[in-house]
Amino acid sequence: MELHLIRHPRPAIEPGICYGQLDIGIAESAAEVAARLRPLLPQRFDLHASPLVRARMLADQFATPLAPLRLDARLKEIHFGAWEGQAFSTIGAAIDDWAADPLGFRAPGGESAREMTARVLHWLDELQASAPAAPVVVVAHGGPLRVLAGHLLGLPPERWLGLDFGCGQATRLDVEDWGVALRWFNR
């Protein structure tokens, strides 16, 4: 399976604000980002995306009658609960708790990275079980893309944060019976 992972364009939010699943727009043209990325993609593909507007706006630019957009909530960013929309500087010492346990920590009313991982991998299991004949393009967020790439590349979850997916950038993985090849990252 040829798998293209695309992070949404730069979000329309001030730096230093926790946004997770906060449904915010984008600060750059989805059409321009899509035009820049389109030459990197195959002619035909199956298209999947997070339903959050910052991913959906870009995915809509790739959708065609032959590649209808499939939205799936399991591809949403991690949910930061009560932290969403707050400046990290106002969250206080809880940031230290998160840093001490980045996989298990859960912001009040949110989900942990382990919980996000479970839902994203459930989506991946369903995708792989369907044995898609066409290449697959996924438009989502940094967190879910780290899960997909890190898992497929066999990296331990503690190392996934090092996979820094750039906004409006594409990455290609080829998933074969013998293993996974990283063809390119953040183009």
Automatic annotation (TrEMBL):
InterPro entries: His_Pase_superF_clade-1, His_PPase_superfam. This is Putative alpha-ribazole phosphatase. It comes from Thauera linaloolentis (strain DSM 12138 / JCM 21573 / CCUG 41526 / CIP 105981 / IAM 15112 / NBRC 102519 / 47Lol).
